[in-house]
Amino acid sequence: MPAPEHLCVELARVPAGAELALDLQLEGVAEGVLVTASVSGPLAGECARCLEPFTASLKVRFQELFVRAGEPEADDPDGADSYRLEVGGLLDLEPALRDAIVLELPLSPRCEDGCQGLCAECGVRLADAEPGHGHEQRGALWEVLKDFQAAEPERDRGQDR
After folding, report:
1. How many CB atoms lie within 10 A of CB 159?
2. Residue 160 phi, psi (nearest 5)
3. For residue 6, is pLDDT > 90?
4. What are the C-alpha distances in Å from 22 to residues 41, 52, 86, 118, 132?
5. I need a labelling partner for 160 at 20 to 30 A (CA). Which of 49, 108, 111, 151 fits?
6. Torsion of CA 117, 6, 100, 65, to 10 degrees
7. What's this model's pTM, rounded to 2 decimal places?
8. Strands 53-67 and 83-84
């Protein structure tokens, strides 16, 4: 099944048109149809620490009840807590699939578990920087304090009891 559009959060997404593998179990229940599904497919995005593009795989499992028209759950004015069977008993899985996938997308994805991010001074990716990468602290503002040493605080002799 091709992925529907808009399966994304800010830094991670399922590419539009990507093939999704579905494993479905449909059960008829008194209120309608209970759908248990497992979906897997590709994941693409940018690392939240170093902004490098990455690809990975995504696997989502969900269970939803699709209620028939006329059931108490289907008459919910908000309709927020249930999905509905369409006229003629057709089941449109796309809204439930989209909701389950978007909820599982990482909000702060990383290209790898140990990603160190970018250097705060020069912006180089720390994974690509030479060992011991660092910068001298310069500036007239801090130069005055370079040799400063705090003195021991004087004890107030009047407070000893």
Report:
1. 6
2. -70, 125
3. no
4. 9, 29, 21, 38, 47
5. 151
6. 170
7. 0.68
8. parallel
